[in-house]
TrEMBL record:
Residues 71-107, 210-262 are annotated as: Disordered. Its main location: nucleus. Residues 234-243 have a biased composition (Polar residues). It comes from the Eukaryota. Keywords: DNA-binding, Nucleus, Transcription, Transcription regulation. This is WRKY domain-containing protein. InterPro entries: WRKY_dom (IPR003657), WRKY_dom_sf (IPR036576), WRKY_plant (IPR044810). One of its GO terms (cellular component) is nucleus. Residues 94-107, 222-233 have a biased composition (Basic and acidic residues). Residues 120-188 form the WRKY domain.
Length: 293
DNA sequence: GCTATTTGACCACG
DNA sequence: CGTGGTCAAATAGC
Protein backbone atom coordinates (compact mmCIF):
# COMPACT_ATOMS: atom_id res chain seq x y z
CA UNK A 1 0.00 0.00 0.00
CA UNK A 2 2.59 2.50 1.01
CA UNK A 3 4.77 1.46 -1.85
CA UNK A 4 1.90 2.06 -4.10
CA UNK A 5 1.33 5.46 -2.67
CA UNK A 6 4.88 6.42 -3.31
CA UNK A 7 4.51 5.71 -6.96
CA UNK A 8 1.04 6.98 -7.46
CA UNK A 9 0.74 10.54 -8.71
CA UNK A 10 -2.54 10.86 -6.85
CA UNK A 11 -0.96 10.01 -3.58
CA UNK A 12 -2.16 13.12 -1.84
CA UNK A 13 -5.65 12.65 -3.12
CA UNK A 14 -5.79 9.08 -1.95
CA UNK A 15 -4.37 10.07 1.37
CA UNK A 16 -6.92 12.80 1.74
CA UNK A 17 -9.79 10.50 0.89
CA UNK A 18 -8.60 7.82 3.25
CA UNK A 19 -8.14 10.29 6.06
CA UNK A 20 -11.60 11.54 5.39
CA UNK A 21 -12.93 8.02 5.56
CA UNK A 22 -11.14 7.44 8.80
CA UNK A 23 -12.62 10.59 10.17
CA UNK A 24 -16.09 9.52 9.19
CA UNK A 25 -15.51 6.16 10.81
CA UNK A 26 -14.44 7.88 13.99
CA UNK A 27 -17.54 9.99 13.96
CA UNK A 28 -19.62 6.91 13.41
CA UNK A 29 -17.95 5.20 16.29
CA UNK A 30 -18.80 8.12 18.55
CA UNK A 31 -22.31 8.13 17.27
CA UNK A 32 -22.80 4.44 17.90
CA UNK A 33 -21.61 4.76 21.46
CA UNK A 34 -24.41 7.13 22.17
CA UNK A 35 -28.14 6.70 22.14
CA UNK A 36 -30.09 7.02 18.97
CA UNK A 37 -30.81 10.67 19.22
CA UNK A 38 -29.76 12.91 16.44
CA UNK A 39 -27.28 15.60 17.27
CA UNK A 40 -27.67 19.11 16.11
CA UNK A 41 -25.51 19.81 13.18
CA UNK A 42 -24.16 16.32 13.06
CA UNK A 43 -24.82 13.62 10.57
CA UNK A 44 -26.67 10.41 11.16
CA UNK A 45 -25.10 7.00 11.34
CA UNK A 46 -26.65 6.16 8.01
CA UNK A 47 -25.00 9.10 6.40
CA UNK A 48 -21.69 8.31 7.95
CA UNK A 49 -21.79 4.75 6.75
CA UNK A 50 -22.37 5.96 3.25
CA UNK A 51 -19.64 8.53 3.52
CA UNK A 52 -17.21 5.97 4.74
CA UNK A 53 -18.15 3.63 1.99
CA UNK A 54 -17.74 6.40 -0.51
CA UNK A 55 -14.38 7.47 0.77
CA UNK A 56 -12.94 4.04 0.38
CA UNK A 57 -14.58 3.59 -2.95
CA UNK A 58 -12.94 6.78 -4.10
CA UNK A 59 -9.58 5.71 -2.85
CA UNK A 60 -9.88 2.38 -4.54
CA UNK A 61 -10.98 4.01 -7.73
CA UNK A 62 -7.99 6.30 -7.70
CA UNK A 63 -5.70 3.43 -7.03
CA UNK A 64 -7.18 1.64 -9.96
CA UNK A 65 -5.93 4.49 -12.05
CA UNK A 66 -9.15 6.19 -12.79
CA UNK A 67 -8.86 9.36 -10.85
CA UNK A 68 -9.98 11.57 -13.66
CA UNK A 69 -13.55 10.54 -13.26
CA UNK A 70 -13.68 8.87 -9.96
CA UNK A 71 -17.00 7.32 -10.45
CA UNK A 72 -18.50 7.12 -13.84
CA UNK A 73 -22.08 6.32 -14.47
CA UNK A 74 -21.22 2.88 -15.66
CA UNK A 75 -19.08 2.19 -12.66
CA UNK A 76 -21.82 3.14 -10.33
CA UNK A 77 -24.21 1.00 -12.25
CA UNK A 78 -21.87 -1.89 -11.89
CA UNK A 79 -21.36 -1.14 -8.27
CA UNK A 80 -25.05 -1.39 -7.88
CA UNK A 81 -24.96 -4.77 -9.47
CA UNK A 82 -24.38 -7.89 -7.52
CA UNK A 83 -24.39 -11.62 -7.85
CA UNK A 84 -27.99 -12.18 -8.38
CA UNK A 85 -29.03 -13.55 -11.67
CA UNK A 86 -31.67 -12.12 -13.85
CA UNK A 87 -35.07 -13.41 -13.10
CA UNK A 88 -37.24 -12.60 -16.00
CA UNK A 89 -35.61 -10.84 -18.86
CA UNK A 90 -35.25 -14.00 -20.85
CA UNK A 91 -38.66 -15.26 -19.97
CA UNK A 92 -40.08 -12.09 -21.41
CA UNK A 93 -39.41 -13.46 -24.77
CA UNK A 94 -40.78 -16.92 -24.20
CA UNK A 95 -44.28 -15.91 -24.88
CA UNK A 96 -45.50 -15.87 -28.43
CA UNK A 97 -45.75 -12.37 -29.67
CA UNK A 98 -48.33 -11.16 -32.04
CA UNK A 99 -47.18 -8.17 -33.92
CA UNK A 100 -49.70 -5.49 -34.54
CA UNK A 101 -49.08 -4.64 -38.11
CA UNK A 102 -46.29 -2.17 -37.43
CA UNK A 103 -48.46 0.08 -35.34
CA UNK A 104 -46.73 -0.94 -32.16
CA UNK A 105 -43.77 1.32 -31.75
CA UNK A 106 -42.70 -0.19 -28.47
CA UNK A 107 -38.98 -0.48 -28.20
CA UNK A 108 -38.31 1.95 -31.00
CA UNK A 109 -35.83 4.20 -29.34
CA UNK A 110 -32.22 5.17 -29.32
CA UNK A 111 -30.35 3.75 -26.42
CA UNK A 112 -29.49 6.56 -24.16
CA UNK A 113 -25.92 7.76 -23.87
CA UNK A 114 -24.20 8.07 -20.56
CA UNK A 115 -22.94 11.56 -21.21
CA UNK A 116 -25.21 14.34 -20.15
CA UNK A 117 -26.40 12.40 -17.20
CA UNK A 118 -25.74 12.85 -13.53
CA UNK A 119 -26.16 10.75 -10.51
CA UNK A 120 -27.54 11.31 -7.10
CA UNK A 121 -27.52 8.95 -4.20
CA UNK A 122 -29.71 9.61 -1.25
CA UNK A 123 -31.95 7.95 1.23
CA UNK A 124 -35.02 9.23 -0.50
CA UNK A 125 -36.13 9.16 -4.06
CA UNK A 126 -37.86 12.42 -3.69
CA UNK A 127 -36.32 15.32 -5.53
CA UNK A 128 -39.27 17.64 -5.57
CA UNK A 129 -40.11 17.11 -9.18
CA UNK A 130 -43.22 15.54 -10.59
CA UNK A 131 -42.33 12.23 -12.17
CA UNK A 132 -44.37 9.64 -13.96
CA UNK A 133 -43.21 6.09 -13.82
CA UNK A 134 -43.17 4.47 -17.21
CA UNK A 135 -41.29 1.27 -16.68
CA UNK A 136 -39.47 -1.08 -14.42
CA UNK A 137 -36.91 -3.70 -15.27
CA UNK A 138 -35.05 -6.33 -13.42
CA UNK A 139 -31.43 -5.70 -14.19
CA UNK A 140 -29.00 -8.49 -14.75
CA UNK A 141 -26.83 -9.19 -11.70
CA UNK A 142 -28.69 -6.59 -9.80
CA UNK A 143 -30.69 -7.41 -6.75
CA UNK A 144 -33.15 -4.60 -7.15
CA UNK A 145 -35.14 -3.61 -10.18
CA UNK A 146 -34.56 -0.35 -11.93
CA UNK A 147 -37.47 2.02 -12.24
CA UNK A 148 -37.86 4.45 -15.09
CA UNK A 149 -39.45 7.84 -14.71
CA UNK A 150 -40.17 10.67 -17.06
CA UNK A 151 -41.24 14.16 -16.20
CA UNK A 152 -44.97 14.43 -15.67
CA UNK A 153 -44.92 17.40 -18.02
CA UNK A 154 -43.37 15.52 -20.88
CA UNK A 155 -46.34 16.06 -23.08
CA UNK A 156 -47.96 19.24 -21.86
CA UNK A 157 -44.68 21.13 -21.64
CA UNK A 158 -42.45 18.91 -23.71
CA UNK A 159 -40.11 18.37 -20.81
CA UNK A 160 -37.55 15.75 -21.72
CA UNK A 161 -36.21 15.05 -18.25
CA UNK A 162 -36.09 11.42 -17.22
CA UNK A 163 -34.54 9.52 -14.41
CA UNK A 164 -33.78 5.98 -13.37
CA UNK A 165 -34.01 4.92 -9.78
CA UNK A 166 -32.52 1.85 -8.25
CA UNK A 167 -31.88 0.78 -4.71
CA UNK A 168 -28.19 0.59 -4.04
CA UNK A 169 -27.16 -2.96 -3.58
CA UNK A 170 -24.37 -2.25 -1.15
CA UNK A 171 -26.56 -0.02 0.88
CA UNK A 172 -30.23 -0.78 0.39
CA UNK A 173 -31.39 2.25 2.27
CA UNK A 174 -29.99 4.44 -0.41
CA UNK A 175 -31.40 5.14 -3.80
CA UNK A 176 -29.20 5.49 -6.79
CA UNK A 177 -30.82 7.92 -9.17
CA UNK A 178 -29.52 8.72 -12.62
CA UNK A 179 -30.96 11.81 -14.21
CA UNK A 180 -31.08 12.33 -17.94
CA UNK A 181 -31.81 15.69 -19.41
CA UNK A 182 -32.88 18.81 -17.65
CA UNK A 183 -36.33 19.96 -16.79
CA UNK A 184 -37.66 22.43 -19.27
CA UNK A 185 -41.06 22.55 -17.69
CA UNK A 186 -41.99 25.39 -15.41
CA UNK A 187 -43.74 23.65 -12.62
CA UNK A 188 -40.81 21.47 -11.76
CA UNK A 189 -38.18 24.10 -11.96
CA UNK A 190 -37.13 24.46 -8.44
CA UNK A 191 -33.68 24.95 -7.05
CA UNK A 192 -31.74 21.77 -6.70
CA UNK A 193 -31.06 22.43 -3.09
CA UNK A 194 -34.74 22.09 -2.58
CA UNK A 195 -34.93 18.99 -4.64
CA UNK A 196 -32.70 17.07 -2.33
CA UNK A 197 -33.81 18.07 1.04
CA UNK A 198 -36.28 15.53 2.23
CA UNK A 199 -35.70 13.62 5.36
CA UNK A 200 -34.83 9.98 5.45
CA UNK A 201 -37.25 8.98 8.10
CA UNK A 202 -39.19 6.31 6.35
CA UNK A 203 -36.98 3.29 6.44
CA UNK A 204 -39.02 1.43 8.90
CA UNK A 205 -39.39 -1.63 6.77
CA UNK A 206 -36.77 -3.81 5.25
CA UNK A 207 -36.62 -3.48 1.54
CA UNK A 208 -37.19 -6.71 -0.14
CA UNK A 209 -37.92 -7.70 -3.66
CA UNK A 210 -40.32 -10.29 -4.80
CA UNK A 211 -39.90 -10.23 -8.50
CA UNK A 212 -42.95 -10.41 -10.64
CA UNK A 213 -45.32 -10.80 -7.75
CA UNK A 214 -48.24 -8.57 -8.08
CA UNK A 215 -50.44 -8.03 -5.14
CA UNK A 216 -53.93 -6.78 -5.54
CA UNK A 217 -53.30 -3.77 -3.43
CA UNK A 218 -49.97 -2.86 -4.87
CA UNK A 219 -51.39 0.29 -6.20
CA UNK A 220 -52.06 1.53 -2.76
CA UNK A 221 -48.47 2.51 -2.53
CA UNK A 222 -47.69 3.18 -6.07
CA UNK A 223 -48.77 6.69 -6.70
CA UNK A 224 -46.06 9.12 -5.96
CA UNK A 225 -48.28 12.04 -5.31
CA UNK A 226 -51.02 10.30 -3.48
CA UNK A 227 -48.74 8.52 -1.09
CA UNK A 228 -47.62 11.47 0.84
CA UNK A 229 -51.08 12.71 1.53
CA UNK A 230 -52.14 9.33 2.72
CA UNK A 231 -49.06 8.84 4.77
CA UNK A 232 -49.47 5.10 4.71
CA UNK A 233 -46.45 3.14 5.69
CA UNK A 234 -47.93 0.02 7.06
CA UNK A 235 -48.64 -1.94 3.96
CA UNK A 236 -45.64 -4.13 4.14
CA UNK A 237 -47.50 -7.11 2.86
CA UNK A 238 -47.17 -5.96 -0.67
CA UNK A 239 -43.47 -6.11 -0.31
CA UNK A 240 -42.53 -5.58 -3.85
CA UNK A 241 -39.80 -3.10 -4.31
CA UNK A 242 -42.33 -0.71 -5.62
CA UNK A 243 -44.42 -0.46 -2.58
CA UNK A 244 -41.50 0.28 -0.34
CA UNK A 245 -39.79 2.32 -2.89
CA UNK A 246 -42.69 4.57 -3.48
CA UNK A 247 -43.29 5.00 0.16
CA UNK A 248 -39.84 6.37 0.43
CA UNK A 249 -40.39 8.45 -2.59
CA UNK A 250 -43.04 10.39 -0.83
CA UNK A 251 -42.08 13.74 0.48
CA UNK A 252 -43.63 14.70 3.72
CA UNK A 253 -45.13 17.82 2.33
CA UNK A 254 -48.76 17.44 1.33
CA UNK A 255 -48.33 19.67 -1.64
CA UNK A 256 -45.58 17.89 -3.43
CA UNK A 257 -47.78 17.36 -6.43
CA UNK A 258 -46.68 20.80 -7.42
CA UNK A 259 -43.14 20.11 -6.50
CA UNK A 260 -43.15 22.29 -3.49
CA UNK A 261 -40.45 21.04 -1.29
CA UNK A 262 -39.10 24.46 -0.68
CA UNK A 263 -38.78 25.05 2.96
CA UNK A 264 -37.63 21.57 3.74
CA UNK A 265 -33.98 21.56 4.34
CA UNK A 266 -31.87 18.73 5.44
CA UNK A 267 -28.53 20.34 5.89
CA UNK A 268 -26.05 17.64 5.42
CA UNK A 269 -27.60 14.78 3.69
CA UNK A 270 -25.56 12.90 1.25
CA UNK A 271 -25.92 14.04 -2.25
CA UNK A 272 -23.70 12.90 -4.96
CA UNK A 273 -23.86 14.24 -8.40
CA UNK A 274 -21.62 12.86 -11.00
CA UNK A 275 -21.60 14.04 -14.52
CA UNK A 276 -19.57 13.52 -17.55
CA UNK A 277 -20.90 16.74 -18.91
CA UNK A 278 -19.99 19.78 -16.90
CA UNK A 279 -22.54 21.90 -18.63
CA UNK A 280 -25.19 20.15 -16.67
CA UNK A 281 -23.66 21.30 -13.46
CA UNK A 282 -23.81 24.91 -14.43
CA UNK A 283 -27.56 24.68 -14.29
CA UNK A 284 -27.47 23.67 -10.70
CA UNK A 285 -25.16 26.27 -9.35
CA UNK A 286 -27.05 26.53 -6.12
CA UNK A 287 -26.96 22.84 -5.46
CA UNK A 288 -25.74 22.39 -1.93
CA UNK A 289 -23.36 19.68 -0.93
CA UNK A 290 -22.75 18.52 -4.41
CA UNK A 291 -19.59 16.61 -4.71
CA UNK A 292 -17.90 16.91 -8.01
CA UNK A 293 -15.67 14.24 -9.29
C1' DG B 1 -64.37 8.45 -16.80
C1' DC B 2 -59.93 10.10 -15.89
C1' DT B 3 -55.37 9.48 -14.39
C1' DA B 4 -51.45 6.86 -12.83
C1' DT B 5 -49.10 2.45 -12.45
C1' DT B 6 -47.89 -2.17 -13.87
C1' DT B 7 -45.96 -5.21 -16.89
C1' DG B 8 -45.40 -7.72 -21.21
C1' DA B 9 -43.84 -6.53 -25.71
C1' DC B 10 -40.70 -4.61 -28.70
C1' DC B 11 -36.26 -3.60 -30.59
C1' DA B 12 -31.65 -0.82 -30.71
C1' DC B 13 -27.34 -1.50 -29.15
C1' DG B 14 -23.17 -3.78 -27.79
C1' DC C 1 -28.14 -12.87 -29.16
C1' DG C 2 -28.76 -10.89 -24.54
C1' DT C 3 -29.65 -6.76 -22.16
C1' DG C 4 -31.85 -2.69 -21.11
C1' DG C 5 -34.87 1.49 -22.38
C1' DT C 6 -39.32 2.61 -23.90
C1' DC C 7 -44.04 1.90 -25.35
C1' DA C 8 -48.69 0.94 -24.62
C1' DA C 9 -52.51 -2.21 -23.22
C1' DA C 10 -54.35 -3.69 -19.07
C1' DT C 11 -55.36 -2.64 -14.59
C1' DA C 12 -56.34 -0.08 -10.41
C1' DG C 13 -57.60 3.93 -7.68
C1' DC C 14 -60.25 7.96 -7.10
Amino acid sequence: MEEYLHENPHKNLIKQVLIQGKDFATQLQCLLRQPIEHHDGSVSADELVVKIWRSFTQAITIMMGNSKSLVSTEEVDQADSGDRKSTDSSSDQLRNKEKQGGKDRRGCYKRRKISGSWIRESATMDDGCAWRKYGQKNILNSKYPRCYFRCSHKYDQDCQATKQVQIMQEYPKMYHTTYFGNHTCHSTKIPMHNMITTSCSQFNHPIEVKPKIRSSNSHDNSTVKEEESKGQNDDVSSSTMDSNLWEDFMPSSPSARDSTLAGHHNSSFLKRVISSDMEDFAKFGDFEDIEFY
